Amino acid sequence: MVEIHNKYMRRCITLAKKGEGYVAPNPMVGAVIVFEGKIIGEGYHQKFGDVHAEVNAINSVKDKTLLSKSTIYVSLEPCAHHGKTPPCSDLIVLHKIPNVIIGSKDTFSKVNGKGIERLKKNGTNVVTGILESECRDLNRRFFTFHERKRPFIVLKWAQTKDGFIDKKRIEGETGINWISAPETRSLVHLWRSHEMGIVIGRKTAETDNPQLNVRDIVGENPIRIILDAQLSLEKLYTSEKYPAKTIVINAVKSEKNKFIEYLKLPNLEITNILKALWELNIQSILVEGGANTLQQFIISNTWDEIRIIEGQGLFYEGVKAPTVNRLPNNKINFGKDKIYVYQK
Fold this sequence. Notes:
Layout: H1 2-16, E1 30-35, E2 38-44, H2 53-60, E3 71-76, H3 88-94, E4 99-104, H4 114-121, E5 125-127, H5 132-138, H6 140-148, E6 152-159, E7 164-167, H7 182-194, E8 197-201, H8 202-208, E9 223-227, E10 246-250, E11 255-256, E12 260-264, H9 270-279, E13 284-287, H10 291-299, E14 305-310, E15 318-320, E16 330-334, E17 337-343
Parallel strand pairs: 3-4, 4-5, 6-13, 6-14, 8-9, 8-13, 9-10, 10-12
Antiparallel strand pairs: 1-2, 1-3, 7-15, 11-12, 14-17, 16-17
Helix pairs in contact: 3-4
């Protein structure tokens, strides 16, 4: 029976991943309905604000009379509260689905066992913990946000084979000194689409003037988050050119205009920044530099994943890349580049 449960839960996880980059701050969830060893319905949470995976799975079943004799597999505990949509646990009870197999519990305070409790109170047979670690890993951003009260943090940079993140520049020189290959840059755009926010410091904004949006693939733009204590780069915040939403974290003012939100903090320490982003419901961030900003996250041990792209070129001198005093969990050959992945 365990292998059968695992089989259908893997399908739930596969379905759930289709929502990556579109459902945050909600979790990715997949659901499969099985009758007499055959899948008769399936669905996933497709977009934030839309109906949940269980609703799509139930709606996909052609013969609804089979639901009262079926089993529904779902990668995350069905919700028990009214949000943008009604509780999924109520819908399961309404259709008298007798068996519910759950991957991981939902630790969000408005759920946190309440969905399971409601199902059991109505006589539903509930099994939990099927491929639990895989289901939690699927929603590691969601769980980190709710359990640790901060965004999930991915640090990313590209460095040359001789360990530089940027060339030595002459005074006033701007623009990006590319290190990675074009196909790897497209992969980075995919990474951007998976996170709710993208963070850079003042110096990177000044020297690179990056767009920080998604261009090479189809996906949602992350919220641009710029750390600029004294607002010395205000002239660069041109949303007509870079249409993604922008938050400027600073020590001067808090105000909003048509394109930009200025968020004043007493100081720009990492703990204060993360608390502010958590309060703004930004579930995950991709920190793209520069070297000083990245190293501060590393020194404070405030990160969940690090992705280092190593290109084939050499700069010989310039800005040294951040240092990570541990071995990578994974090494990937991607075209001409190498990607080193560190995970806690």
